[in-house]
Here is the input.
Amino acid sequence: MPQTFQGEHLRGGQPGEVALTIDAPRFPSVLLTHANGSLNLGVFQAGTHAPILTLRDHDNDGVVDLLTYSAVSADGEPLVDVEDYGMDGQPDFIFNRQAGSAQVYFRGRWHEVDGVGTGVASVEVDGARLPLKEIMGEIGRPNL
Here is the structure.
């Protein structure tokens, strides 16, 4: 019979924040927070506590609207991060940390991001160069 691990309700760092944590040896840890109408769930790698999955209700409307997940090494080093805005099943942004490259899904296809990490990242779309920040706003990325 599987064991059930009970977490504790804790007051978080924000007024009105309640957190539930589940942390058991050799198992991924889980953090569930509820603050000011926003629900967030995080799953973290066992041992390293590197984030491997998050679900967020970023706009506090009661609907989860952001999914992020990461591939991490056994040592907890992040390798690839994926973001899905609107939880529609289509990844919107992929960042390959090892290669230092990123791609964004925009207007029905994938585009390579130029200038990753420079603060002036851009994407070529139909012969025009658009700032990545503008594209991210258009595809619905919340301000994280």
Summary: Residues 1-11 have pLDDT under 50 and may be disordered. The CA atoms of residues 92 and 105 lie 5 Å apart.
